[in-house]
Structures are given as structure tokens and as C-alpha cells.
Amino acid sequence: MPTVAIVGASNDRAKYGIRAVRAYQRQGWTIHPVNPGLRDVEGLPAYGRIEDIPGPVDRVSMYVPPTVGITLLEGIATKAPKELWLNPGSESDELVAKAEALGLEPILACSIVDIGERP
């Protein structure tokens, strides 16, 4: 079962962070919500930092502003995900450059659409 860390996961139904959690659940992924302000999302334990997730992470899907995301890249790099998805609104030239410098290959697109769902 592939694993995904959803950075910026939320319990607010108006936000894409929860839409992503629900979409990945429907597709059978193992989901790790990441949000330091939450204990759980949709009944799943939420992690304060991506580094706290036990085991490997296949995909990271970002739903935070680029000013926040850029501060998380070093932690993401320690998990060595196969994919780093920068969803619309989470990307910036500076963030992409830093991600690439850390050996990550960011994908600038909607990860929900990639798994065959509609956000």
C-alpha cells in the first residue's frame, strides 16, 4: 500500500487539506496527516512534523503556503519520498529551488487529480 504524507491536513471541510485526506482514503492509500496543531484528522493520527512519521513515505503532498513549506523541506528530505507534490498555492520559485538543492524533484500539480479524484 503506498503511503502519503499530507502536509497541511485539516479538519476544515472547506480546505483542500481535508479533501486530500478523503480522496487518498477512497483510493486506498496509507495516509499520514501532518499538522502541528491537530491530534487527528478524519480519525487518523496527525503528526506535528513529517520526521515523526514512522517508516517510509512514498509521496508528500503539500497544502501549506510556500513560506511555510520552505521551512519544512529539510525534514521532508530526511524521509526521501519518491514524490513531492506542490499543489496549487503551495509553490514558489524559491521553494522549488531549495527542494531541488536538497535532492527532491517537486511536481507542480494537483495530487488529488493525479490519483483519479476531483478536488
Please give a handful of descriptors for the protein shown.
single chain, 119 residues, alpha/beta, Rossmann fold, five-stranded parallel beta sheet, two-stranded antiparallel ribbon
Q: Can you describe this structure?
A:
The chain has helices at 16-26, 66-79, 93-101, 111-114, and strands spanning 3-7, 30-34, 40-41, 44-45, 59-62, 83-86, 106-108. It has 119 residues and is α/β, with parallel strands linked by helices. The strands form 2 sheets. Strands 2-1-5-6-7 form a 5-stranded parallel sheet. Strands 3-4 form a two-stranded antiparallel ribbon. α2 (66-79) packs parallel to α3. The longest helix is centred in the middle third of the chain and has 14 residues, at 66-79.
Largest sheet: 5 strands, parallel
Q: What proportion of the residues is helical, as a percent range? A: 25-40%
Contiguous runs where pLDDT drops below 50 for at least 5 residues: none
The first-to-last residue Cα distance is 22 Å
How many β-strand runs?
A: 7
Strand order, largest beta sheet: 2-1-5-6-7
What portion of the residues fall into strands of 2 or more residues?
Answer: 15-25%
The CATH class of the domain at 49-114, by name, is Alpha Beta
CATH superfamily of the domain at 49-114: NAD(P)-binding Rossmann-like Domain
Any idea of the CATH topology of the domain at 49-114?
Rossmann fold
Rounded Rg: 13 Å
List the helices and strands in order. EHEEEEHEHEH
Question: What is the count of helical runs?
Answer: 4
Annotated CATH architecture of the domain at 49-114: 3-Layer(aba) Sandwich
Tell me the overall shape.
Answer: globular
Mean pLDDT: 97
Structural class by SSE content: alpha/beta
